[in-house]
Amino acid sequence: MKKVYCIILAALLIVSLWSYIESNPIKSDFTMYCFDVGQADSTLFVMPGNRCMLIDAGNYKDGDYIAGRLTELGIKKIDYLVGTHPHADHLGGMSYIIKNFDIGKIYMPDAAQNTEAFEDVLKAIKDKNLSVTKAKSGVEILNENDLKIQIKSPALDEYSDLNDYSAVVRIKYKDTAFIVMGDAGVANEKEMIEDKNNDLSANVIRIGHHGSDTSTSSRFLNRVKPSVALISVGKGNEYGHPSIDVIKRLKDRRIKVYRTDKNGEIQIFSDGKKIKCYPKTGG
């Protein structure tokens, strides 16, 4: 009975804390938002100088939701917009975002898909007279003393799997770092770790391909050495994501795992030295 009471109390405290955060945003130099878009992907970074970067925008139906969250956060301009690859669960809501927000620079890999979602994004870009910078390994989005954003993958011009074109983005803020994987697979991970001078270390990793066993190899985790892993995944999804093997790899390394299907939206704050994680539900 005492154990049940403690669990209920902990849950109430988490709900209360999240409500407080929503109504009184914690002042942070740097904040990462892992939006809850089900079996899709969308990640927001709010950085010094009131600059923000949105990586992916979920499915088509998620565009309105993400726009709403951006508005709640007081965001009117997206300085850096990254579409990791053309799949609809990453790019679907992006046309809505482009149409409804001031957009700075757009980064996308040189990959296309003959779908309505992808064509809508291209049309939205054209209608606003925007241009696209090719997302490829080595491209620097930003390089300042305390803030560096670099694309780590893809390294090649051609892949057989569309997921392998995924733009992998690493953000370093002072002594903390974050890496967002899109749907990048083991082939991309191998390319990245073969470059011994490639800094892939990160406190937080946004796990590739919703936790599929096509990503998150042991070798890659050993190189990144994260303390926190975020998985964007839908409840009861038909793909069986996240993979049991991936979860085991994470737990074997004592990496704290947060999942949108269990935790909802996850917010991570950084002061440049330490990070703090605030899931909407669970712990």
What is the share of helical residues?
25-40%
Estimate the mean pLDDT confidence. Answer: 92
| Total beta strands | 15
Rg, please? Answer: 18 Å
Q: How are the strands of the largest sheet arranged?
A: 6-5-4-3-2-1-14-15
What is the CATH superfamily classification? Ribonuclease Z/Hydroxyacylglutathione hydrolase-like
CATH architecture, by name, is 4-Layer Sandwich
CATH topology, which one? Metallo-beta-lactamase, Chain A
What is the CATH C-level name? Alpha Beta
Count of helices?
A: 9
Spans of 5+ residues with little confidence (pLDDT < 50)?
A: 6-12
Tell me the span between the first and last alpha carbons.
21 Å
The helix-strand sequence is: HEEEHEHHEHEEEEEHEHEHEHEE
Strand portion, in percent?
Answer: 25-35%
Structural class: alpha/beta
How many independent structural domains?
1
Largest sheet: 8 strands, mixed
Shape: globular
How would you characterize the overall build of this protein?
The strands form 2 sheets. The chain has an 8-stranded mixed beta sheet, covered by helices on one side. Helix 2 (62-72) packs across helix 4 and helix 4 (94-100) packs parallel to helix 5. Helix content is 30%, strand content 26%. The protein is of the alpha/beta class. It is globular. The protein starts with a helix and ends with a strand. The chain has one domain (2-279): Ribonuclease Z/Hydroxyacylglutathione hydrolase-like (Metallo-beta-lactamase, Chain A, 4-Layer Sandwich), CATH 3.60.15.
